[in-house]
Amino acid sequence: MFTLQQLRIFQAVARDGSIGGGALALGLTQPTVSHHLAALEKELETPVLVRHARGVTLTDRGRILLTYADQILGSAQGAVQAIRDRAQLEEGELRIMTFATAGASFLPSLLAEFHRRHPAVRIRVSEHNDPSGGLLQVRDGAVDFAFIFTVPQWAHNVPELRIRSLFKDPLVVALPSSHRLAGQDVVDLADLAGEQWITQNTDHDAHHVTLLSACTAAGFAPSCPIRSDAFATIATYVAFGLGVALIPALAAANMPAGVRCLPVRSPGLFREVRMAYPADDASTPASAFVRVISAIDAQWWRQWTDVD
């Protein structure tokens, strides 16, 4: 019986039209290729190639063999890949980079479902503060998958990655529960023009940039004397009446007593939560995680951003 190696060599020679070209494509010597082709024809008891000065051509039986060689070698490669994929789901690792409010809201539920389906896969999670950093980590192979957020003022495009939108996370105003506007159902930013705003440490932070843009559109420049990158810290300052803040709805679910979060009557005040993974070569665990996420409907995401 002929071997897969013989079929692979025959296929390479048939496609190139020469023994030398087939040998070069496979990294073999011409004598080795000729030896395997002779053994193949001996096993089949018929010539499959006609050798001439310009190279080789297929006989009628050679064309039949090439059709089956393509199928057999494709099936063999598929079997190898399937076995490797299974091994990764039994022994592999899923490396995820995320942002803090994702980890404090929807991500644990997703990971629990993934673990239920693939209990042998090790899960590693790290956090980032800069969305572009998360994308670069995926691109460079440091992690398999990333959750990121973007705001309308920022655009992220990494051609090597597939970036899919999951849901919009509204930005809401966090007020002390004793605030004059805390009893309303919705607020206008213009009504908060005279307030002290608690915002992020760095001026280039996405949330801070969004706050400045929104306040400018509302006709004022916000005063920002207190700064912190942690929404929990920001919320504590708000609870003690030290100012107001613009925070994502994902963070609003974990506010301390003394804080009321209200929607803002302003278009475009949101951040978009996205997932990113390699476009062409995602790991098997990452692909399995994408399938978990793809099975979720829009209503499931909405529960994390509802503000009472």
Automatic annotation (TrEMBL):
Q: What Gene Ontology molecular-function terms does this entry list? A: DNA binding; DNA-binding transcription factor activity
Question: Signal peptide span per the entry?
Answer: none
Superkingdom to which the source organism belongs: Bacteria
In terms of CDD domains, this protein maps to: PBP2_LTTR_like_6
Q: Which InterPro entries match?
A: LysR_HTH_N, LysR_subst-bd, WH-like_DNA-bd_sf, WH_DNA-bd_sf
Q: Does the keyword Cell membrane apply?
A: no
Provide the alphabetized UniProt keywords.
DNA-binding, Membrane, Transcription, Transcription regulation, Transmembrane, Transmembrane helix
Which Pfam family is one of this chain's hits? LysR_substrate
Give the residue spans that cross the bilayer. 230-253
HTH lysR-type domain boundaries: 2-59
One cellular-component annotation, GO: protein-DNA complex
What protein family does this chain belong to? Answer: Belongs to the LysR transcriptional regulatory family.
Q: What is this protein called?
A: Putative LysR family transcriptional regulator
Task: Tell me the organism.
Answer: Kineosphaera limosa NBRC 100340
